[in-house]
Structure formats: structure tokens, C-alpha cells
Amino acid sequence: MVPIEEAQTYVLERCSRRAAISTPVSEALGLVTATEVIAAESIPPFANTAMDGFAVRSSDSAGAPVELHIVETIAAGHNPKLTVGAGQASRIMTGAPIPEGADAVIMVEKTSVKDDVVTVQAAVEKGNHIRPAGDDVEIGELVFSAGTVLTAGHLGVLCSLGMNEIDVYPRLRVGVISTGDELVDDGGVLAPGQIRDSNRRTLISLLTGDGFIAIDLGLVPDDEAAIESALVNGTDHCDAIITSGGVSMGDFDYVKAVLDRVGDMRWMQVAIKPAKPLAFGTIGHTPIFGLPGNPVSSMVSYELFGRPGLRAMMGFAQPLRTPIKGVAAEPLLRRPDGKTHYARVSASYEDGTVLVRSVTGQGSHMLTSMARSNALAVLQNGDGCDTGDVVDVLLLDSVNIA
Questions:
Q1: Distances 223 to 36, 96, 149, 258 between C-alpha atoms, Å
Q2: What domain count does the chain have?
Q3: pLDDT tens-digit readout, 36-93
Q4: Engineering a disulfide at 342: which of 196, 302, 375, 376 sits with its beta carbon 3.0 to 4.6 angstroms away?
């Protein structure tokens, strides 16, 4: 059997990063920057107030309470027209520019107004409640390095800098194919020997959730001509293709025969459970991931090989999911068999610790248990672990960890 580290390295070395493109900022969520982002302007571009209140000369507030004459009102989005002189103040709204002459803002809660006179009830220091120009980002500053994964916050900063496009590594189009005469997806009554195709929808959903563009290439029967047509046609408009089924020892070799004929493939038995069988290679320059047909094996194989390979193609510096340390809330048992086991578990935060509990039904065909899981516990070869033992955990759904 092939060690998992060797199999992952083999995949990652052959999933080369795609050439960078310029894309609209509005479409860049989750993408990786291909170049540095240097600020062409400051944020904020001008000194402005952080509060509703009055722009004043700080020296005029000494000995408060004091009365100042209101010379104008400055709303956000409007430029001041007058200079604040001695004994004067300008009413000002949050975000509005600071007028000439003023060096502080006193919040409205510490004032009272009658006609065009404001009574300042507390002394303030120079700079009070003023956001200087460039307080967040200065012109010429390195804002984001190349290789930054763009989140909502990053996109907000890019918009604040007036950027409409950004150089990134492109979002991948990934085709998904299910194969097998036993599979149906029409919702009708099952004939003897038929099962419903779940893998295609599951893989498409995983791809979409991970930020790829999933392309449904359909359910293909066990026919070499049909399989070859689906694969070859898929390479014309997909950056990578994922298939499920036909990669296990003893399977009908339709998929294997086609891939061996039209592609450059390696067929592996990886030292893991589930998801031991894996096919990986290329048709031309398009990576092909041949995943097992058992539903859970297909999902685990995607997590361990498909997702990392695709992330590497999109420029992610850390394509593999980083494990965290969890604590077994109950025994997580297994038998020595020379493999690393990826046990389906439910992870939850309790008193600052990630506790993991086994989910009933660990068979590779038992998809319901995968739906009840939000993590995989990594159990090295041996007898497993006891209650209270520390265990490596791959969080698959950190959002739903209570």
C-alpha cells in the first residue's frame, strides 16, 4: 500500500498552479492574490470626525463650560466652507471632513445648543475624535502580500482603495462524473439491482462549498465509448475532472481501461480507511481524480486528495487542511491493519476544548453518518485512543461546531 503522505505529494506535485488573471473585485471572494497590493491612495483620504458633534479649537474648550458661536453645519459627503476661528465651532456629522482651524471634535452628548450658540460642557484635547488621513492605510503602503486569500474584509479594503480589478489565480471549473450501470438519478421506482446516484450531487456540493465552479458532466453508463466521450469532452471546458466509481480492485475496468488509454494515470491503494483506492493522473494537461464509488470513501478521498490538489491549482500556499488537536470524549477504537483511519466524529467546543465523539455507522457505504459528522479523527495504526487522549482532527464544518 502507498503511504498517504506519498500519495498526497504525488497529487500536489502534478497539480500546477494556473496562470494569473485579472478579475473584478466583485468576483474575487475566496481567490488568492497573484501580486502585491500597494495602496494608491490613503484610507481615509482626508481627516474626518468619528462622532456627531462640533469641530472646535481645543484651546477654546479650556475652562469649560464655554459658549462658542456655530458658523456652519457639515454633513458627511460635504466639504467645509468656513474656517473655525477663535470662539467658533462647526456642527459636524460622523465621517465629515474636519474644517480648517479646528483640531478636535467634542461629541454632541457633551454639548447643548440654543439658537446659533453651542455650550461645550467638557474640555477636549487636540485630536479628540478625529481620524487622520491615512489612519488605516497610507498611500504607498503594502496592503496585502501576494498569496493572500481574499475574504470579505479584504474585498472591502480593495473597494476603499478604489480598485475594481485584482490579479488573482482563477477559480477552477471542475467537472464531476458518476459511472455505473447500477446508478439512477431520475427519482423513479428502483428496479432490482439499482441504486440512486448520491456521489455526483455530494461532490458538486463539496466543490461549490470550497469555492470551485462545479460542472455536472452527468451520469455515464458502463460503456467505454460513453465514458471516453464524457472525459475527453470534459477536458475541453474544465480545469480538472473528478470521477467516482470504477477504481477499486475487482471493479469492472471500463473507467480504468479508458483512462489508461487516453490519460497518464497512476492507480494506487493508499494505506488509509476509508478511501483506499485512488486513481490520479492527467488527460493532456487536465488533472483527473478517480475517486472510489462508496459514498463515504468518495467524500474522504475528495477531502484528502481532490480538495488539496484543486487548491494547489488555485494558488493556495497551504492546500492541505491543517489538523487541530482534539480530545476524545469517549474511546475511539480500531484494529491494527497498517492503515491510518479517518473516523467520522462529532466535534464540539466544551470549556475551551474541542471534544470529539464517534458517530454511529463507520462503514464506507453509510452516508448518513457522514451527514451527522463535522470532523474526521485521524487514528494512526494501532488500537485507537481512550477517553481523554489527544487526537488530530480535521474540521470539515467549523461553522456548525457549537
A1: 49, 69, 42, 10
A2: 4
A3: 999 999 999 999 999 999 999 999 999 899 999 999 999 999 999 999 999 999 999 9
A4: 376
Q: Which domain holds residue 122?
A: 48-131
By CB atoms closer than 10 A (0-12, 13-18, 19+), residue 142 is: exposed
Is the pLDDT assigned to residue 250 strictly greater than 70?
Answer: no
pLDDT digits (tens, 9 = 90+) for 16-37: 999 999 999 999 999 999 999 9
Contact between residue 54 and residue 105 where contact means Cβ atoms under 8 Å apart? yes
Whole-prediction pTM: 0.91
- For 223, the grid coordinates are 460503456
Q: Are 305 and 334 within one domain?
A: no
CATH number for 344 = 2.40.340.10
The amino acid occupying position 20 is A
14, with CB counted inside 10 A (0-12, 13-18, 19+), is: middle
Please report, as a single letter, which amino acid is at residue 344.
R
Is 384 within the bounds of a domain? Answer: yes
pLDDT band of residue 402 (cuts 50, 70, 90) is low
For residue 247, the model assigns a pLDDT of 77
Greatest CA separation for the chain: 93
- The beta strands (E) that lie in 65-179 are given as 66-74, 88-92, 104-107, 111-114, 117-120, 130-131, 142-144, 165-169, 173-179
Q: Where are the alpha helices (DSSP H) in 292-399?
A: 295-301, 307-313, 367-371
Of the residues 284, 313, 342, the one at which a domain ends? 313
CA 217 to chain centroid, in Å, comes to 25
Q: Residue 338 and residue 270: Cα distance in Å, rounded?
A: 10
What single DSSP character describes residue 172?
P
